[in-house]
Protein backbone atom coordinates (compact mmCIF):
# COMPACT_ATOMS: atom_id res chain seq x y z
CA UNK A 1 0.00 0.00 0.00
CA UNK A 2 1.22 3.48 -0.80
CA UNK A 3 2.20 5.82 2.00
CA UNK A 4 -0.85 7.28 3.69
CA UNK A 5 0.38 10.86 3.31
CA UNK A 6 0.79 10.50 -0.47
CA UNK A 7 -2.69 9.00 -0.85
CA UNK A 8 -4.16 11.80 1.26
CA UNK A 9 -2.37 14.48 -0.80
CA UNK A 10 -3.46 12.89 -4.08
CA UNK A 11 -7.11 12.65 -3.01
CA UNK A 12 -7.23 16.19 -1.63
CA UNK A 13 -5.47 17.54 -4.74
CA UNK A 14 -8.05 15.83 -6.95
CA UNK A 15 -10.92 17.16 -4.83
CA UNK A 16 -9.48 20.68 -4.92
CA UNK A 17 -8.94 20.53 -8.70
CA UNK A 18 -12.46 19.32 -9.43
CA UNK A 19 -14.04 21.82 -7.02
CA UNK A 20 -12.06 24.60 -8.70
CA UNK A 21 -13.34 23.47 -12.11
CA UNK A 22 -16.95 23.44 -10.92
CA UNK A 23 -16.65 26.91 -9.40
CA UNK A 24 -14.70 28.47 -12.25
CA UNK A 25 -17.62 27.70 -14.59
CA UNK A 26 -19.58 30.14 -12.41
CA UNK A 27 -16.82 32.74 -12.42
CA UNK A 28 -15.91 31.99 -8.81
CA UNK A 29 -12.49 31.39 -7.34
CA UNK A 30 -12.15 28.48 -4.93
CA UNK A 31 -12.04 30.72 -1.85
CA UNK A 32 -14.98 32.93 -2.82
CA UNK A 33 -17.99 30.81 -1.74
CA UNK A 34 -17.06 30.77 1.96
CA UNK A 35 -16.39 34.52 1.86
CA UNK A 36 -19.73 35.17 0.17
CA UNK A 37 -21.45 32.99 2.79
CA UNK A 38 -19.71 34.89 5.56
CA UNK A 39 -20.84 38.24 4.14
CA UNK A 40 -24.39 36.93 3.67
CA UNK A 41 -24.51 36.04 7.38
CA UNK A 42 -22.54 39.11 8.50
CA UNK A 43 -23.72 41.83 6.14
CA UNK A 44 -21.84 45.03 6.91
CA UNK A 45 -18.69 43.25 8.09
CA UNK A 46 -15.22 44.68 7.58
CA UNK A 47 -12.39 43.43 5.41
CA UNK A 48 -10.39 42.60 8.55
CA UNK A 49 -13.23 40.24 9.56
CA UNK A 50 -12.84 38.42 6.24
CA UNK A 51 -9.07 38.11 6.73
CA UNK A 52 -9.41 36.80 10.27
CA UNK A 53 -12.31 34.42 9.71
CA UNK A 54 -10.97 33.18 6.37
CA UNK A 55 -7.45 32.68 7.75
CA UNK A 56 -5.95 34.76 4.94
CA UNK A 57 -3.60 37.68 4.73
CA UNK A 58 -5.08 41.17 4.36
CA UNK A 59 -3.50 41.35 0.88
CA UNK A 60 -5.21 38.12 -0.22
CA UNK A 61 -8.53 39.37 1.12
CA UNK A 62 -8.07 42.68 -0.72
CA UNK A 63 -7.48 40.98 -4.08
CA UNK A 64 -10.43 38.61 -3.60
CA UNK A 65 -12.81 41.35 -2.47
CA UNK A 66 -11.78 43.62 -5.36
CA UNK A 67 -12.63 40.81 -7.78
CA UNK A 68 -15.94 40.16 -6.03
CA UNK A 69 -16.82 43.85 -6.13
CA UNK A 70 -15.85 44.09 -9.82
CA UNK A 71 -18.15 41.12 -10.57
CA UNK A 72 -21.00 42.76 -8.67
CA UNK A 73 -21.15 40.21 -5.84
CA UNK A 74 -20.49 42.69 -3.06
CA UNK A 75 -20.57 46.43 -2.50
CA UNK A 76 -18.47 48.57 -0.21
CA UNK A 77 -19.82 51.48 1.77
CA UNK A 78 -18.20 53.77 4.29
CA UNK A 79 -19.23 53.43 7.90
CA UNK A 80 -21.34 56.42 8.95
CA UNK A 81 -19.75 56.50 12.41
CA UNK A 82 -16.13 55.80 11.45
CA UNK A 83 -14.75 57.38 8.28
CA UNK A 84 -11.78 54.96 8.30
CA UNK A 85 -13.98 51.86 8.16
CA UNK A 86 -15.37 50.37 4.95
CA UNK A 87 -18.26 47.91 5.32
CA UNK A 88 -18.97 45.01 2.95
CA UNK A 89 -22.48 44.17 1.77
CA UNK A 90 -23.78 41.29 -0.32
CA UNK A 91 -25.63 42.12 -3.53
CA UNK A 92 -28.51 40.20 -5.08
CA UNK A 93 -26.05 38.86 -7.66
CA UNK A 94 -23.74 37.81 -4.84
CA UNK A 95 -26.56 35.88 -3.17
CA UNK A 96 -27.45 34.22 -6.47
CA UNK A 97 -23.91 33.15 -7.33
CA UNK A 98 -23.23 32.03 -3.73
CA UNK A 99 -26.22 29.69 -3.96
CA UNK A 100 -25.07 28.36 -7.33
CA UNK A 101 -21.57 27.82 -5.95
CA UNK A 102 -22.92 26.00 -2.93
CA UNK A 103 -25.05 23.75 -5.15
CA UNK A 104 -22.09 23.03 -7.46
CA UNK A 105 -19.82 22.04 -4.57
CA UNK A 106 -22.52 19.91 -2.92
CA UNK A 107 -23.24 18.16 -6.21
CA UNK A 108 -19.58 17.43 -6.77
CA UNK A 109 -19.14 16.24 -3.17
CA UNK A 110 -22.12 13.90 -3.56
CA UNK A 111 -20.48 12.39 -6.64
CA UNK A 112 -16.97 12.39 -5.15
CA UNK A 113 -17.91 10.74 -1.87
CA UNK A 114 -20.77 8.74 -3.43
CA UNK A 115 -18.46 5.83 -4.16
CA UNK A 116 -18.27 5.25 -0.41
CA UNK A 117 -21.00 3.58 1.58
CA UNK A 118 -22.83 5.67 4.18
CA UNK A 119 -20.90 3.85 6.89
CA UNK A 120 -17.57 4.55 5.16
CA UNK A 121 -18.46 8.24 4.79
CA UNK A 122 -19.27 8.45 8.50
CA UNK A 123 -16.01 6.69 9.39
CA UNK A 124 -14.00 8.93 7.05
CA UNK A 125 -15.69 12.02 8.46
CA UNK A 126 -14.94 10.96 12.03
CA UNK A 127 -11.29 10.21 11.22
CA UNK A 128 -10.79 13.48 9.36
CA UNK A 129 -12.43 15.41 12.20
CA UNK A 130 -10.11 13.68 14.66
CA UNK A 131 -7.10 14.82 12.60
CA UNK A 132 -8.59 18.30 12.16
CA UNK A 133 -9.20 18.78 15.88
CA UNK A 134 -5.73 17.49 16.83
CA UNK A 135 -4.04 19.81 14.33
CA UNK A 136 -6.23 22.74 15.37
CA UNK A 137 -5.29 22.12 19.01
CA UNK A 138 -1.57 22.04 18.16
CA UNK A 139 -1.86 25.27 16.21
CA UNK A 140 -3.67 26.98 19.09
CA UNK A 141 -1.07 25.74 21.58
CA UNK A 142 1.67 27.01 19.30
CA UNK A 143 0.02 30.43 19.03
CA UNK A 144 -0.50 30.62 22.78
CA UNK A 145 3.04 29.53 23.64
CA UNK A 146 4.36 32.21 21.29
CA UNK A 147 2.28 34.85 23.07
CA UNK A 148 3.51 33.71 26.48
CA UNK A 149 7.13 34.11 25.37
CA UNK A 150 6.45 37.65 24.15
CA UNK A 151 5.01 38.77 27.49
Keywords:
single chain, about 150 residues, mainly alpha, 2 domains, three-stranded antiparallel beta sheet, 3 strands, about 10% strand
Structure summary, number of beta strands: 3
Could you give the order of the helices and strands?
A: HHEHHEEHH
What is the correct CATH architecture of the largest domain?
Orthogonal Bundle
CATH class value of the largest domain: Mainly Alpha
Name given to the CATH homologous superfamily of the largest domain? Winged helix-like DNA-binding domain superfamily/Winged helix DNA-binding domain
Question: Strand order across the biggest sheet?
Answer: 1-3-2
Q: What share of the residues lie within helices?
A: over 70%
**Named CATH topology of the largest domain:** Arc Repressor Mutant, subunit A
Give the uncertain stretches in residue-range form.
none
- Distance separating the two termini: 48 Å
Amino acid sequence: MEKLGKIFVDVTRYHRYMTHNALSKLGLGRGMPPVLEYIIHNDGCRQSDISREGHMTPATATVMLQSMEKNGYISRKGDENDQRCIRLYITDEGRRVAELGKEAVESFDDEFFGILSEEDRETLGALLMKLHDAIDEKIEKSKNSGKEKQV
